[in-house]
Design brief:
single chain, about 220 residues, alpha/beta, DNA polymerase, domain 1, 2 domains, six-stranded parallel β-sheet, two-stranded antiparallel sheet, 9 helices
């Protein structure tokens, strides 16, 4: 990184939110639990495709439509529209990973400005943080819905820098997604990859500046 970061930018979905309970929701509508991961990957794929084509889709709308398509040949325990509604509501009721609240408080106490930047809606982060009691730790909750494009397009990260009033080099993105790390790095941000599962990092993406197993490690990593 060229500069010491002054602003920590958090991805939200999967980075902060624990999506494991979505597997149970899929099972309850009669769908294999592993379809939860398939659905989310399809949602991101189609959002990225629209971005690459110069269009802008809304996360919830893409998610609901991708889900309807995925469930077409599934023998559901309820009507298809009810199943879609049940899954989408579950997405809004997720909790944070256990390491997140203390990790966030530690970074705030260390003097960093904290914001989010999500491809989803701001209200998802609002509800997550309100339930966990950490909403006040964040200066701003940002979404690409107000940006020119989805992450990992460079314009999304530049949007966050512009709102925060700093150069992109003063931002550090925290994310579990290597594609997000790569996009942020190419846009000039510092990066921290949260690798809770001990997964290998794809060699075709730009390496993160920091690799941490949980958010609580980041304050020490930055100090070092």
């Amino acid at each position: 990184m060229a500069n010491e970061p002054s602003v920590i930018v958090f991805d939200v979905n999967e980075t902060l939110s624990d999506m494991a309970p979505m597997r149970d929701r899929f099972a309850q509508i009669g769908c294999p639990p592993d379809h939860a991961r398939l659905w989310f990957a399809s949602l991101l794929r189609d959002g990225f495709a629209l971005t690459a084509a110069g269009d802008m889709g809304r996360f919830a709308e893409i998610g609901a439509e991708a889900l309807r398509i995925l469930l077409t040949d599934v023998h559901l325990t309820m009507a298809a529209d009810q199943a879609v509604d049940y899954i989408m509501k579950g997405f809004m009721m997720l909790d944070l990973h256990p390491d997140v609240p203390d990790g966030v408080r530690s970074l705030k106490a260390a003097g960093y400005r904290l914001v989010t930047l999500t491809n989803g809606a701001t209200r998802v982060a609002e509800q997550l943080f309100a339930r966990a009691g950490i909403h006040e730790e964040f200066e701003a909750l940002l979404s690409v819905e107000e940006a020119p494009a989805w992450k990992p397009a460079a314009s999304s990260y530049k949007y966050a820098a512009r709102v925060c009033g700093v150069d992109t080099s003063e931002l550090l993105l925290v994310a579990v997604h290597p594609w997000d790390i790569h996009g942020a790095s190419r846009a000039g941000l510092g990066t921290a990859w949260v690798n809770r599962a001990g997964a290998p990092y794809p060699s075709y993406f730009a390496n993160p500046d920091h690799v941490i197993e949980d958010l609580g490690e980041l304050t020490h990593a930055l100090a070092s």
